Amino acid sequence: MHMSLKSKFFETGYLKEIKIFEPNEVLKIATQYESFLNEKNLSNAEAVEHKSKTHLYFEWASQIVKNEKIINIVKEILGENLYCWNSLIFYKSPKSKKFVSMHQDQNYWGIKHDKALTVSLALTESTLDNGCLKILPYSHKENFLHENYESRDNMLARGQSITLDIEKKNSLDNIELKAGECCIFHGNIVHGSGKNNSLKSRLLFSMRFLTTDNMVNKKLYYNDATLVSGVDNFNFFKPEPQLSDTISIKNLRELHKKILISQFSKYLLIKLKFKFIINILMFFFKFDILRGFSYFLIGKTKK
After folding, report:
1. In angstroms, how far is CA 188 from the centroid of its own chain?
2. Residue 175 contacts residue 133 (beta carbons within 8 Å)
3. pLDDT for the residue 35
4. pLDDT higher than 70, residue 2
5. Do the beta carbons of residue 204 and residue 123 sit within 8 Å?
6. Rounded CA separation 33/36 (Å)
7. Which of 83, 166, 172, 222 has a CA that sits 20 to 30 A from residue 54's CA?
8. pTM of this prediction?
9. What is the residue-wise DSSP string for 156-206?
10. Which of 28-42, 97-111, 197-211, 221-235 has the lowest mean pLDDT?
């Protein structure tokens, strides 16, 4: 019996090697992105903050989150009414020690199970050698104990990490993708990635899609999102404006900056616990140079 895309997704927790773009289409974006990283006047604040809510920062990203082929697959799994809640850059330069510790997104998202997923699109070839995504099949059906793995090389802001036994480590699926292919995975699947041992950079663009009846933990996260399909009859999210004749990428970047400053304050509150100190600090963090220095102190830099 042929298993539907939706059934297969919820059974194994992920789908892989789905072709979305031709390699030359995404490699052009990857080249532009590397040029952006090498701009001399790029502040450290921008260099860090563009990696979250990327669809509000780059025109190419705002188009990809609404790509018809991607949206149709997500609709088949989650239904008609969808938000893109977040999009992220995962970039590893050649010989980079950066990694993503094994974790479950659902552990800290606070969203409803089975109503959220991630589409991870390879903008360059993604291989075991350059630090590809690793997934533990079927692991979305259980909850694992997370601990903080504090490392300047951990690409997760909060460093949440799961320790896997030998059997589970041996069961990991290395998600090797050609440029233009994607992997789609459940919000509760155990996943992570290793360092880049190769001489080429590795670039993934990840998109988080949620159903409109979902809710996020607002103590930890923003609830701004871009409506990419259907309608929202619940109003749990603040709809983000979209590129049009009257709304430019500059307008979106202004919103992006406000959202990321707000997110930084939530991150600091978790770390420092005292709200009155955060309020004082946030006055100064309106300035890019001071936010950039703070990111540097916690190990968040350009590459």
Report:
1. 14
2. yes
3. 96
4. no
5. yes
6. 5
7. 172
8. 0.90
9. SSS-EE-PPPHHHHHH-EEE-B-TTEEEEEETT-EEEE----SSS-EEEEE
10. 97-111
* Comparison of pLDDT for 302 and 137, the residue scoring more: 137
Name the residue type at position 71.
Answer: I
Contacts of 145 (CB under 8 A, 6+ apart): 162
Residue 137, class by beta-carbon neighbours within 10 Å (0-12 exposed, 13-18 middle, 19+ buried)? middle
State the burial class of residue 250 (Cβ atoms within 10 Å of its Cβ: 0-12, 13-18, 19+): exposed
Integer Cα distance of 62 and 191 in angstroms: 25
Query: Contact 210/115 with Cβ under 8 angstroms?
Result: yes
Mutual orientation of helices 249-272 and 275-284 as an angle, nearest 10°? 150
Query: d(Cα 209, Cα 225) in Å, to the nearest integer?
Result: 9
Q: Average pLDDT of the chain?
A: 89
CA–CA dist 237, 224 (Å, integer): 6
Higher pLDDT, 215 or 18: 18
Alpha-carbon distance of 289 to 285, in angstroms, equals 8
Tokens of 299: 């190990």
- Cα-based distances in Å from 4 to 24, 76, 265: 30, 9, 43
pLDDT of residue 271: 58
**What percent of the chain has a predicted confidence (pLDDT) above 70?**
85
Helix ranges (H only) for 40-95 are 44-49, 59-64, 68-78
Q: What pLDDT, on the 0 to 100 scale, is given for residue 1?
A: 44
Q: What is the DSSP string of 6-21?
A: HHHHHHHSEEEEEE-S
- Complete domains list, the chain, with CATH: 5-297 (2.60.120.620)
- Encoding tokens for residue 85? 């809640």
